[in-house]
Design goal:
This protein is mostly helical. The chain contains eleven helices and no strands. It has helices at residues 6-27, 62-76, 78-89, 93-120, 125-138, 147-172, 175-205, 207-220, 231-240, 246-260, 271-310. Helix 10 packs antiparallel against helix 11 (271-310). The radius of gyration is 21 Å and the shape is globular. Bound molecules: fe (ii) ion (2 copies). One fe (ii) ion (FE2) is lined by residues 75, 106, 109, 161, 188.
Length: 311
């Protein structure tokens, strides 16, 4: 397998980045985050003579609060993602222009979710701020992934974020929150398309190397929110509620991209590429099995709770 170094790949993919940045700028809408926040509901907190926050003020269910909090704190960690992407993509040419544009768009997400939550008294603002401080101090370390693996990672991650915002929106049972999260999910979708096209181009330039990156990322994917305080507990609750679980991860995030890239139809792979494809097939099967087991256990637990309630 001819292995391309990072510098060669950055150069080879530069034209694709340029084209996709132009395509992105033509299709992205310059939406106004302040238009999505119900400002008239806002009032002062205690220090300015208002009422302190209490749980009874929130119209959100506990699970909607948990999901919104995790989504927001994940978005909050943007300075780390910006730094990591800058390290991986370099600070030149269209790559740099993309990273800056992407960062500017992502910056809106945290700010308007926070505005919505503070104005509607959706979640405890003191706890939220403490968690934001802890999350940013933990930072996000991508583990110095090779360039292609980073491109695959962000493809999956943007789609995961889109699905997570959309499903959180449904669970909020508040049309204002749903409208806001649907708007954000549209941004995440465009980000996903950018990275998906980049991986597609990489498959043409270096098919074996790109397949290896896909196989490794399917096997080792972790959500960027994993540094948020209490992530494991929150992720379990979010999975139990069906907002984001292994079945959704496999069916709605990993498989649509794997299918789009047509990796199982690629011809003339060398032995390294074939091995990567076999590893990918095994990783997909393992993920599907874990998803099936999770769904089964969740159904059993729900049936158990229903029976307990009936007794
Ligand atoms: Fe975002
Ligand atoms: Fe995004």
């Amino acid at each position: 397998m001819t292995a391309f170094g990072t510098r060669a790949l950055l150069k080879q993919l530069e034209a694709t980045v340029e084209q996709n940045l132009d395509r992105h700028l033509a299709s992205a809408e310059n939406w106004m985050p302040h238009e999505y926040v119900p400002w008239s509901e806002g009032r002062n907190y205690a220090t300015l003579g208002g009422e302190p926050w209490s749980a009874g003020q929130s119209r959100l269910s506990p699970i909607a609060r948990t999901a919104l909090e995790l989504n927001l704190l994940t978005e909050d960690n943007l300075p780390s993602y910006h730094a990591e992407l800058g390290n991986t993509f370099g600070r030149q040419s269209a790559w740099r222009a993309w990273v800056n544009r992407w960062t500017a768009e992502e910056g809106r997400h945290a700010s308007c979710i926070r505005d919505y939550l503070l104005v509607t008294r959706g979640i405890d603002p003191d706890r939220l701020e403490q968690a934001r401080m802890a999350t940013l101090q933990a930072g996000w370390d991508s583990g110095d992934k090779p360039l292609l693996q980073a491109c695959v990672y962000v493809s999956f991650q943007e789609l995961a974020t889109r699905v997570s915002h959309r499903n959180t929106g449904h669970h909020c049972e508040d049309p204002v929150a749903e409208r806001l999260l649907t708007r954000i999910a549209m941004d995440e979708n465009l980000h996903m398309i950018f990275y998906r096209n980049l991986v597609q181009a990489a498959l043409e330039i270096a098919p074996g190397q790109t397949l290896r990156a896909i196989a490794d990322e399917v096997a080792g994917f972790t959500m960027p929110g994993s540094v948020v305080p209490g992530f494991a507990r929150k992720a379990v609750q979010i999975a139990q509620a069906g907002i984001y679980d292994l079945r959704i991860h496999h069916d709605d995030v990993i498989m649509p991209l794997v299918r789009h890239w047509r990796v199982f139809e690629l011809e003339d792979l060398d032995s390294g590429g074939e091995q990567a494809r076999q590893d990918l097939a095994a990783a997909l099967e393992a993920l599907d099995t874990r998803a099936a087991r999770f769904v089964e256990r969740r159904a059993e637990a729900q049936a158990g709770r229903r029976q307990e309630a009936a007794e």
